[in-house]
Write a structure and sequence with these properties.
- This protein is α/β, with parallel strands linked by helices.
- The protein has a single domain, classed as Vaccinia Virus protein VP39 (Rossmann fold, 3-Layer(aba) Sandwich), CATH 3.40.50.150.
- Helices cover 42% and strands 20% of the residues.
- The protein contains 8 helices and 7 strands.
- The protein has helices at 10-20, 25-34, 46-58, 73-80, 95-108, 121-130, 149-159, 185-199; strands spanning 63-67, 87-92, 114-118, 137-142, 160-169, 203-208, 214-219.
- A 7-stranded mixed sheet has the order 3-2-1-4-5-7-6, with helices on both faces.
- Helix 7 (149-159) links the parallel strand 4 and strand 5 (160-169).
- Helix 3 runs parallel beside helix 4 and helix 6 packs parallel to helix 7.
- Bound molecules: S-adenosylmethionine (SAM) and calcium ion.
- Calcium ion binds at residues 42, 44, 143, 169-170.
Length: 220
């Protein structure tokens, strides 16, 4: 099969951003602050944040879930795309990183739309299911520990309404998923999830070569 994907070199990426990115000054400052953290590479790309905000608006989402907050960058894009009474349930284990997130959420005026659950996301998802939240979510972004990706996917699918959308990040994992030499736990977990979703007839799906690979999953 011939490859019809346009390679994105530095110049073309800069051009893409120059004619499409609508990032606020606040989000830009959050990226600059996060860049000083040794784990800053975990932050979503700006055009990806903007794309997810578009998806949230497109499906008219009101209730969203984020698994993996870090310093709150993707959460801001999503929360700003919600109506004023919309909700984002945000899951993370890190006090340190989410303290930065909270500071920017306050400044952006969207802190009241976001409920941060500090603790292992599996516990939060199980609590949501136990408290009758199945079928109530419109949109979810999965972007935390890769070893749990399949577990997150299964639980998130239960939490979603039919017609709801899951966005899963890093599904191309820097290309490692296509390299048989790479057998580390994270790469294997992402491969398992990719193959599982491909066969899953409960959903419509598409894997986009956006940033590090973005899988869109629509619950039937
Ligand atoms: N979505 C964020 C963004 O765009 O800026 C990036 C999230 S970062 C890739 C992954 C996050 O998952 C980290 O902040 C980490 O603390 C969190 N995390 C790791 N293991 C977790 C777990 N078991 N439950 C909840 N969060 C976890
Ligand atoms: Ca990610």
């Amino acid at each position: 099969m011939s490859n019809k994907i346009l390679p994105l070199d530095e110049a073309l990426y800069a051009y893409l951003l120059s004619v499409s990115l609508r990032e606020s000054n606040l989000l830009e400052r959050l990226r600059e602050e996060t860049a000083r953290d040794p784990m800053s590479r975990m932050q979503s790309a700006p055009e990806q944040g903007q794309f997810m905000a578009l998806l949230v608006r497109l499906i008219g989402a009101r209730k969203c879930l984020e698994i993996g907050v870090f310093t709150g960058y993707s959460a801001i894009w999503v929360a700003q795309a919600l109506p004023a009474d919309g909700r984002l349930i945000a899951c993370d284990t890190s006090e340190k990183w989410t303290a930065i997130a909270r500071r920017y959420w306050e400044e952006a005026g969207i802190a009241d739309r976001i409920r941060l659950h500090l603790g292992p996301a599996m516990e939060t998802l199980d609590d949501l299911l136990d408290t009758g939240e199945a079928g109530r979510f419109d949109f979810a972004f999965i972007d935390a520990d890769k070893g749990n990706y399949l577990n997150y996917y299964e639980r998130t699918l239960q939490l979603l309404r039919p017609g709801g959308l899951i966005v899963i990040d890093n599904t191309l994992w820097s290309g490692d998923v296509a390299d048989p030499e790479k057998q580390d736990d994270d790469t294997v977990a992402i491969r398992i999830l990719n193959e599982f979703i491909h066969r899953d007839d409960r959903v419509e799906m598409s894997l986009l070569p956006v940033a590090d690979g973005l899988t869109l999953v629509l619950k039937k």
